[in-house]
Fold these 2 entries.
Entry 1:
Amino acid sequence: MGTFAFLVLAALLIGSALAVVLHPNPVKSAMALVATLFLLAIVFVLLGAHMIAVLQIIVYTGAIMVLFLFVIMLLNLGDEEVPTEWPRVVLRGLAGMAGALMALQLVRLVAGAPLGRMVDAPEGYGGALMVARSLFTDYVLPFELTGLLLLVAVIGPVVLAQRRGR
Amino acid sequence: MIPTFPAIAWPALLPILMVSGLGLLLLGAGLYTDDEETLGWGALAGLIVAGIVTLVLVGGESVRTFNGTFALDGYALFFDWLFIAAGALIVLMSMGYLGETDIEVGEYYALLMFALVGMMVMAAATDLIVIFLGLEIMSISVYILVGSWRTQPRANEAALKYFLLGAFSTGFLLYGIALIWGATGSFRLDEIAARLPLADESTLLLAGIAMLIIAFGFKVAAVPFHMWTPDVYEGAPTTVTALMAVAVKSAAFAAFIRIFLWGLAPVHADWWVVLWVLAAATMTMGNLLALAQRSVKRMLAYSSVAHAGYVLVAVTSGSADGGAAALFYLLVYMFMTVGAFGVVAAIGRAGEPLENIEDYAGLATRSPLLGATMAIFMLSLMGMPPLAGFAGKFYVFSVAVQQDFIVLAVVGVLNSVVSAAYYIRLLVAMYMTPEPAEAPALGRRPYLIASIVIAAGFTVLIGVLPALGLQVARLSFLSMQ
């Protein structure tokens, strides 16, 4: 049952991921990305990582994708289609070749790696308790530094977008 | 099970806590006053206190804290001091400059402090995740600073270009970190170094190293990842350009050297060829492109590309001597480049910049002080004894020869000769070209002049007493292990 569900999910995931890259309309491409992220969240649920699944939906599907869509709509790209003249086709070919090379390497790696070395995730892995525990103990410094990073990121829009003259 | 909180050695955090506290204070004070001098003096006083505390910490023994992800060692303190000194000089430069722009003063100084915090984190981190966060804090602050002069179209263009390319390079860094984690199972540099023999020749590791080289190549502006440099350096407010040219580059090198000459030192054989080619290309392209520039700001941008190449020569050779030479070079480069950009800021005027080489004609008669200091910086950048630049290049190239990278050293020396052409062209303009009839008057900028004079003083001082500086650099580098 688990394997069957995963295979169906994986097929859908690859399909929607391809749609993100291949669809010429930016809005539909973004919607396909929403679908991809949702499906990935379901994969996390299947793995028992409920916390990560919820975060995935809240952060990516909820916040980041809404931002993406806003930007696309503000830039008015809705109706425009990505042009497909000659140099772009060549570039696409080159990018495709680079991607294929990367995929080949990955397949070689996975095929060559001793898969038996993998270990099962510990009990509760990816749950709220485990995430919180490592966040506030082992990773407390990165956590605090992220706070500073977010502060800087908040100042940025204010500096760059505010109107002068109080 | 009660989770155990990691033991924290607070002194290790002292420098970054002080500077980030200073940033917050300036941000708050910016709500009440717009006076660039009041806030500037505050920033300067805070940085001087932080600098003194950093010097006091130098005597202590090295500690690692937060599960070995953050270090207080001579290496971190060396760079802390370098960033604080560069920050103080840039604050001094900004105090006369900001009033001529419409940059928000409080936010400007606060972001400058946060950028310094990011750099200090990069220099002290011994863990790839923490290095990444430091790099992001620094980069995002600097993206904003580049665009902070909002009514200047070329600053907007520069900020957008820097942001897009910088975000792209961050992607490479993260991917590289993930691949190295895949190969070694750790983010910590000491654990990575210990596990590398097991992971040697693994494709994951090599791909990860390649990604890291690309990401840091972007940040230090090494050829072929330098495309953004001239446009961004030219478009940014000159004080921010000085920050990028010295502090951002040094911070990227700080993390680069710690990762490659410590964490990845066991696989030196795998990566030196890539850095060799990168160093040779960076020196050659930087100097050749600098020859063709009419704008002094762009010329200095390409010259900073070339100087990244000289530091890469030292990194390529990969020994303790190489590390010491690289640190020494960064120290020397900091003073002479801050000073040179200070002179550019002193000549240029807000809104209608005077940055072309013609605008420097007869500078020596118009302002003997600016002429003489610019001459010191140009001769030092060229590598003329007895100035600091000569000592820097001498150590870098002699390390390269010692480690049998003779061809690379020859390429470097030939490049220094080529570079003389464009540095001397500026000297000729300043000293041997008559001043144009309607030359605009130079404003009175006491703070700017002070920062230029201090930078010139250190450039001469380190040039006269290079052994002391090199000894400090060597001890700092050795304290890393």
Note: The first strand of chain B starts at residue 63 and ends at 65.
Entry 2:
Amino acid sequence: MSGPVKDTSVSSEQGAISWFDLVKDLIGTAILTMLILTPIVTFKTTMNQGVLFIEDRWVQSLLLTAAVVIGRLLLHLFVWHKPPSTAAAKPVVAKAPLSESLAKYVAPAMLAIAIVLPFVLHQVPSWDKRGIDFMITILIYIMLGWGLNIVVGLAGLLDLGYVAFYAVGAYAYALLSTIYLPLWFGPGVVPWAFYIILPISGLLAATWGVILGFPVLRLRGDYLAIVTLAFGEMIRLVLINWFSFTNGPQGINVPKPTFFGLPFKDEPGGFAAFFGIPHDRIYSYIFLYYVILVLALITYFATNRLRRLPIGRAWEALREDEVACRSLGINTTTTKLTAFAIGAMFGGFAGCFFAARQGFVSPESFVYIESAMILAIVVLGGLGSQIGIVFSAIVIMGAFELFREFGAMGHAVQDGLMYVLPDAVVSGIGSLFTGTFGALYGLLPDAMRNSLAGATTGMDPIQFRMLAVGLAMVLMMRFRPRGLVTRRQPTVFLKERKSVSSDLVAEGHG
Amino acid sequence: MEYFLQQLINGLTLGSIYGLIAIGYTMVYGIIGMINFAHGDVFMVGSVVSFIVILGLGITGGSGSFMIILALALVVIIAMLIASVYNWTIERVAYRPLRGSFRLAPLISAIGMSIVLQEFVRIAQEGRPKPIQAVITGKHELLHRLTEGGEFIVTISNMQILIIISTLALMAIFTMIIQRTSLGRAQRACEQDQKMASLLGIDVDRTISITFILGAALAAFAGMMFFLYYNVTDFFIGFLAGIKAFTAAVLGGIGSIPGAMLGGMVIGLIEVMWSAYFSVEYKDVAAFTVLVIVLIFMPQGLLGKPEVEKV
Amino acid sequence: MQDWSKDPELRVQHLTMRFGGLTAIGDLSFDAGRKQITALIGPNGAGKTTVFNCITGFYKPTEGMINLRHADGTEFMLERMDDYIITQKAKVARTFQNIRLFSGMTLLENLMVAQHNMLMKASSYTIGGIFGSGKFKRAENEALERCKYWLNKVNLMDRADDPAGDLPYGAQRRLEIARAMCTGPRLLCLDEPAAGLNPRESDELNKLLLSIRDDHNMAILLIEHDMSVVMGISDHIVVLDYGRKIADGTPAQIKVDPAVIRAYLGVEEDEDPGENIVVAAAPAKVAKVSVPRVVVQKRVAKKPVVKKGGRK
């Protein structure tokens, strides 16, 4: 081990580490990791017929410790002690204009992709419904991200309870479409419920935005974050406990939206029958996809427009310096409330759509973690940047979905290989793999082999996805705290539009 | 009246636990000005670790009292050690590199860390609640009255006595540390002005680390007591307890250690009284309402100092 | 009666501001004349910025009246108005001692934000703006013209599209003044506009302020330590010490006023060499110094620390 270490200490003049320090560091890491892992990973408590047992998993925790130590060693060797020249030589300034010239084409290109996407996915038989459904999910989160961006990114008010407005929209649809609209206007109105309720849900959410926004106007920073979190949780707890109104944790089944009155059902008067085409559930997916695409685009263009109006500029000024705003005659109370209300309104639209698309709502969908996820999307995108939010929603939700798909995808790749390559090759590769691992596996002692088998079974990748989101949030803040898109576009200019580096942009008081 | 007295005892017990967690919030907020969102989950880790150790040692309510005391002493030490290691690592990995970064960064990092801890424990130990038989049993009747309305009894359990007394003892030790030792002085100096403190030769990084360790040790103790009191724990207890303890910290006046304890007692009492007299379902809503009201109308808390807006 | 008291733009009467037990301003009365530059001077901690904060509504005074009367006769009682309404209705604009620009926004945007109320009205409170009404477009062009005018006036036209945070210190001060002027004020309150400026820059500042007074018929209220600025352009000087007015008059009168000399030069104070060290240990404050200031610093250091807390 000392060989390569010596090499690095010779090759790098600065930041070199002696092998003694390195070993000390690694031993420290190992001890620390063992302390962290030992109680919780090593001793697994399982319930068996009502009695708790402890089952030890030394192998796993030793393997994990080894992984951490090796990872740290690699970081020491290849990342942390490189000669400084390589890091400093990177031209930082040259990057901005390039990305800016590209940025002009990104939005239209993405719009074009978004428009044709369902037709492309339609051609992939095994992935059409799931693919489009997944795209719908991403679009919902993009829309929520854009909505929250008004509050957090533009007005600089840190809102950790955004999911409350999403819930208001969803429950507005659920309650109005199942109970109140039929009660008031008769059951004939139900096919049109979505179109009627959509604007109402936005207004209701905006009202809630004002109601919840009003008391927190004086708060800033962490306090604002925790109060909004509390509001979000309160709304969820009320939804759970107010059984007579919301049906509690069991949730409500709601009607699916129709194509302007035509239900997506295999029946006369249904969508397919009306247009004289064979019934296929895919039409419903495609329809929903375009609905959410339109809603998201409305959010996008409305926000863009608002930014160029005095109200939007006041939001950004509020984020930069509230006291200065007041000295310029800006009513910060109404400015904050409009930001809350408009952000909430888009959350309400998204919630209404979500309820209609799921066909079911329950308080389970509106937990605090959802708020944290949406906030993570906005922050990873780069506060205030709308295009950045599209990327980050795709990255985060994509990664999220990947965990679900891991198993399935493995099979898909295998199937694909089977299809392309001759059988012999595939089985050859397969036996090579099993051969190598089998041989290694055989070398392990019995006890270890058993625990390894135990370790890998019952570990479903889907289990790890929230863990990954949490880790991503931490790493993101460490390495790219300003998000993916780090430049702010001015809203007005005389000669040329020069983007502003986010190092200068304040992040608001709340 | 008897009913009220009983609830008072229950409330003070719960309040002690909240108070112990709240100290961690209040100290960290005082010194680096951030809500350590993961602190509630450190409490949870302390609780889960003490559960595992108790299960591993195989002590139950039936073990001899000498064995129980010996075992619990061991549990306390292990839980405090492990929770401290967790909080120290969290500070090193997730907060320290962000010092001087933009203001939202540590908060978001802390939210991420909270998710990581919860998920880590959930994956490693499964999500189901972990119940055990009560280890510390026995209770004392304080009042016994027979009236026409029925039998009224006020009791205090050994566990409740243990929680309240050990909390008071820890508080006393802790206040001594803050007021009398050089560590406490360094800590108060860092709260005032970190740059100046470091110019005067205080190791700011080390002081912050120790703050995190102390906070975690108290939270772990609270976690163990919580577990022994309710005889059940799981990966999610940190979220609610954390928010309530934070409320306690703000109510008492952020940065003030007696305030945190006082706030904890008040929150514990409110929660217990609300469940007893109004509705159990809405007890968390009541706690959140207190949080909102306190933050909006008295952000300086009971024992904190008011802040004048600087222009 | 002095000429500033005949038809004052601003009349402050018996203004008192207490923070807890500390009296930051005690029974202060003065007038600021129309189309005049009134300087508010005094040693550090004398309560000058507190007076500003009371006038602009950031603090509510404990006692006293602050009356503002426009040339057309409309009167405002500033002590009863909220800060943003004072700017909006009473047309008082201010700058800050520690510059408060929107550093992530461009110069042009900074000036556009200052015209928020006018533009809000023109955009029919956003509704008309969303659909691009003609009225809003006209108002926006008008606003842009005003921005250009002020950018030219403060010599920052060529940097209009740069972020405000990129500007050098002196330019930031000028931009802040331009931004305040874009709100269309009748009274401009400047908190140490010359702090940190080099002699050439403070000369330019003098010209700018005179031009604002003469070409725009403005009343200016000025807090300043730089005596070349104060003596060079003020029509009227009010001197504060420990929250009380100790002198009030023309620059010529103030220069020879015994109370002012005592406050600034500390005649009655016995010299203690130890305190000079205290002064030297506050480099940030000594940096922007003229000779009398050093002495001022010493006097502040002599008072108990409580005196300083809560002020500003």
Note: Chain A touches chain B through 58 residues (CB under 8 Å).
